[in-house]
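[Automated response] Your request has been received and processed.

Submitted sequence:
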Amino acid sequence: MLAPEHGVEHCADGLEWAKCDEVDDAWKGTMTQYAGRLHRHHDAKHEIRIIDYVDREVPVLRRMFAKRQRTYTSLGYHAG
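Generated structure:
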């Protein structure tokens, strides 16, 4: 599996950008929900991939990405 996906859409939900890297617990629930939706059964579905993009040149985005990586790992995903 390839980890992960999410990010900017959460900041658009009324959060202040400066606090956007502080919502780790809220993201874990949302990420769990999104991943669960991806795993719903369908006969044509054989592999689940979550792809996460990050601009590593922007410190706040790099920190948010690192937090998402920890959450993906706790959900059983691995980067690859």
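Summary generated for your ticket: The helical segments are 8-11, 24-38, 59-74. The longest helix spans residues 59-74.
If you did not submit this request, please reply to this message.
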